[in-house]
Design a protein that fits this description.
By secondary structure, the protein is mainly beta. The chain has three helices and twelve strands. It holds the Pfam family OMP_b-brl.
Length: 363
């Protein structure tokens, strides 16, 4: 019977414990008191009796508490209610709490170890010293489970436990080596001291990280926020978006017929692309330069290159490019050939040398 009760107490403890985490740690000392019913082991020959406890303890971690407890009960003997029988003791109890954050109630498991003392009167007739009295103390252990509210200012506790009392000298039950009692109680837990206050998070410190608008990692004069080409190198001509632009916008294909300064139809598309480049970079200034091949007198070639540069200049301004952004037009004659050729006909006829260029200005 006693073993069945022990197993039952263990099962109760397992059933009431869900898999939850302990809540915020409240490590205040507390005092506790409870009252309940002590269901006596039937082998004692005593009746069930009320009992009470007084204790003190504290939470030692978010999930564990330790409590020292005093208990007292005064049951009557079945065979003679006039005979005195009392039992009291102390124990050190360890509770494993399962309180979740935001949950007002939480279950717990209990184990305890202590000392129980019995004071037992018995009929010693026909001795003149009747009734006789036995006073004895012995080891006791208990297991149990309960439900406790959050501490706050006051907590409420309900508990069921099984206590094994290793009393092997009972007069009323001489054949028993130990007794198992069931304890069911309700009580209060009163924390001592002010309720802990959650620490206030420090105010966020102002960010000291530099703003990208104030940084220019590649030193190209364009801040990191606007720089679309952060890998550009010093010395390059950089547009307002941080990307390199060609020092010379080669109008490859804008060539001229021999001894002519008029635009050929195939040059219009290329000049349109040059207009788009200049519109994309509104801060860009360019020199409009004209060149000739090595055929003919120098003075004539100078005038011819000037007319070719003027033709491109006029095209750009007529298509929306402000003249203030254009230096020139400048004719370089035959002084800057891309390919060195003889000066005699027909070898001097070189279409690559008969060209115009837009040379980017740094200021």
């Amino acid at each position: 019977m006693k073993m069945r009760l022990l197993c039952g107490a263990l099962l109760v403890g397992l059933v009431v414990v869900p898999g939850v985490q302990a809540q915020q740690f409240d490590d205040r000392w507390y005092v506790a008191g409870s009252a309940g019913l002590n269901v006596q082991d039937s082998e004692r020959g005593t009746r069930n009796a009320p009992f009470f406890t007084l204790g003190a303890g504290r939470m030692v971690s978010p999930a564990w508490s330790v409590e020292g407890q005093f208990n007292y009960q005064n049951p009557n003997l079945d065979i003679n209610e006039d005979l005195y029988w009392s039992q009291y003791g102390v124990s050190l109890d360890l509770r494993r709490h399962f309180m979740a954050e935001g949950q007002g109630w939480g279950p717990y498991l209990l184990v305890g170890l202590g000392y129980q003392r019995a004071e037992e009167e018995f009929d010693a007739s026909p001795s003149p010293q009747s009734p006789g009295q036995r006073e004895d103390g012995n080891l006791a252990a208990k297991i149990g489970a309960g439900l406790q509210s959050d501490l706050g200012r006051l907590a409420v506790r309900a508990e069921v436990a099984y206590r094994a009392d290793f009393d092997d000298s009972s007069v009323n039950a001489p054949d028993s080596d130990w007794f198992g009692d069931m304890l069911a109680s309700v009580g209060v837990v009163i924390p001592l001291g002010p309720e802990p206050v959650a620490p206030v998070a420090p105010a966020p410190t102002p960010s000291t990280a530099p703003n990208c608008a104030d940084m220019d990692d590649d030193g190209d004069g364009v801040n990191n926020c606007d720089d679309k080409c952060p890998g550009s190198q010093a010395g390059q001509t950089i547009g307002p978006d941080g990307c390199p632009v060609p020092v010379s916008i080669d109008l490859r294909g804008v060539n001229f017929d021999f001894d002519k300064a008029t635009l050929r139809p195939d040059a219009v598309q290329i000049l349109s692309e040059a207009v788009q480049i200049l519109q994309r970079y509104p801060e860009l200034r360019v020199e409009v330069a004209g060149h000739t091949d090595l055929c003919g007198p120098d003075a004539y070639n100078q005038q011819l290159s000037q007319r070719r540069a003027q033709t491109v200049f006029d095209y750009l301004t007529s298509n929306g490019i402000d003249a203030s952004r254009l230096a020139g037009p400048v004719g370089y004659g035959e002084t800057r050939p891309l390919e060195q050729t003889p000066q005699e006909l027909p070898a001097c006829k070189n279409e690559r040398n008969r060209r115009t260029e837009l040379n980017v200005q740094n200021s």
